[in-house]
UniProtKB/TrEMBL annotation:
Principal subcellular localisation of the protein: cytoplasm
SUPFAM superfamilies recorded: Glutathione synthetase ATP-binding domain-like (SSF56059), PreATP-grasp domain (SSF52440)
Gene: ddl
Residues the record lists as binding Mg(2+) 1: D319, E332
Enzyme Commission number(s) from the entry: 6.3.2.4
Cofactor binding mode and count: Binds 2 magnesium or manganese ions per subunit.
Lineage: Bacteria, Bacillati, Actinomycetota, Actinomycetes, Propionibacteriales
Organism: Nocardioides agariphilus
GO terms classed as biological process: cell wall organization; peptidoglycan biosynthetic process; regulation of cell shape
Keyword Nucleotide-binding included in the entry's annotation: yes
Entries under InterPro entries matching the protein: ATP-grasp, ATP_grasp_subdomain_1, D-Ala_lig_Van_CS, D_ala_D_ala, Dala_Dala_lig_C, Dala_Dala_lig_N, PreATP-grasp_dom_sf
Gene Ontology CC terms: cytosol
UniProt name for this protein: D-alanine--D-alanine ligase
Reaction(s) catalysed (UniProt annotation): 2 D-alanine + ATP = D-alanyl-D-alanine + ADP + phosphate + H(+)
Binding site for Mg(2+) 2: E332, N334
Length: 375
């Protein structure tokens, strides 16, 4: 096995792609982060996870990691050289396997930057793998990632912490198969309209707005196509969608960004996948949000409380509904939010005084400072 020379720079493995339906969005995020990491400070290794779960050494060319049209989404090339993490007494190394070639060691990994959205990445799975491998990584740990990814359990935890939430009902595929009529009745008691969404999904994939009982079965089946657990939630009619970013200071305390607002334009009834990611103008983003100072202060306080309630680390975006009477309800917490320079999380922090490159550097520095294992 060939051995590399020791690099004086810290080695950062940027991991992206993954097996979830948000594979393409993860690739887009990675393209932006790869451009932002300072190459004079860090030795960067791009690692892609193909849709079938294979880990490969990717090119890292940001131009290949962009959405150019609705029919042209970026994807990890699973045919590239395989890569793996190996652990020994000296640390954790990256090893590349080319067909018909001896394994090549790229060297020790100092930090993994997991830019994975959705299941098998944002849900504690890769975090657990990295903990077992003894590698530091950016972002939330195993429990916080798992709880925040599963919206039904997220509501349990945030509700226990006294945070305001929308009424909801969890529907598993097994329960729906056994008693669709009973569940339809219980959902009707919530009051229409409702949103039906995969409990462990993201990027608005698999979400439907249901206006009456006749639309319910199709919406639940669509959500179950992505996740056997669906969340049915009362629609926040008349509310504004506002968000707040949370970022740990180097001493570990949570800091919050100025809030921002998403306003949907065109024919989109809610903030769906097309409105979020496709090139056409579907949304207007107000950064900072045009809201009263006292409401903004309350939102920032609630965001920090949500961050600490799930035991989050590194970063999170907390989404809210703001009602006409000024009351706020937590919608969800995202431990790996959209992270291109045009995404809400980086834009909120830029408006707060931390630009994109500095934000990426802060997250890497936080990861370098913390230990693996229990903390």
């Amino acid at each position: 096995m060939t051995q590399p020379e020791k690099s004086p720079r810290k080695r950062i493995a940027v991991v992206f792609g993954g097996r979830s339906s948000e594979h393409a969005i993860s690739c887009v995020t990675a393209g932006s982060v790869l451009q932002a990491i300072d190459p004079t400070k860090y030795d960067v290794v791009p690692i892609g996870i193909a849709t079938d779960g294979r880990w490969v050494l990717e090119s890292g060319d940001p131009d290949l990691l962009q959405i150019t049209s609705p029919d042209k989404l970026p994807e990890v090339d699973g045919a590239r050289a395989a890569v793996m993490l190996t652990r020994d007494s000296g640390g954790t190394d990256l090893v590349v396997h080319e067909p018909s070639q001896p394994p090549q060691t790229l060297g020790e990994v100092d930090v993994v930057f997991p830019l994975l959205h959705g299941p098998w990445g944002e849900d504690g799975t890769i975090q657990g793998l990295l903990e077992m491998a003894g590698v530091r990584y950016v972002g939330a740990g195993v429990l916080a990632s798992a709880v925040s990814m599963d919206k039904s359990y997220m509501k349990v935890v945030l509700g226990a912490a006294g945070l305001p939430l929308m009424s909801s009902l969890t529907v598993t595929a097994r329960e729906w198969y056994r008693d669709p009529d009973g569940l339809t009745h219980r959902i009707g008691e919530l009051g229409y309209p409702v949103f039906v969404k995969p409990a462990r999904g993201g990027s608005s994939i698999g979400i439907s707005k249901v206006h009456h009982a006749g639309e319910l079965a199709e919406a639940i089946e669509e959500a179950h196509r992505h996740d056997p657990k669906a969340l049915v939630e009362v629609a926040a009619e008349g509310a504004r969608e506002v968000e707040c970013g949370v970022l740990q200071a180097l001493d570990g305390t949570p800091e919050t960004s100025v809030p921002a607002e998403i306003r949907i334009t065109g024919d989109h009834e809610f903030y769906d996948f097309a409105a979020k990611y496709l090139p056409e103008e579907h949304t207007e983003l107000d950064v900072p949000a045009d809201i009263p100072d006292d409401v903004a202060a309350t939102m920032r306080e609630l965001a920090a409380r949500a961050f600490e309630a799930v035991g989050c680390e590194g970063l999170a975006r907390v989404d809210f509904f703001l009602f006409p009477d000024g009351s706020l309800v937590v919608n969800e917490i995202n431990t790996m939010p959209g992270f291109t320079p045009l995404s809400m999380f980086p834009r909120m922090w830029a408006a707060t005084g931390l630009d994109y490159a500095a934000l990426v550097d802060r997250l890497i520095e936080l990861a370098l400072r913390r230990d693996t294992g229990l903390r």
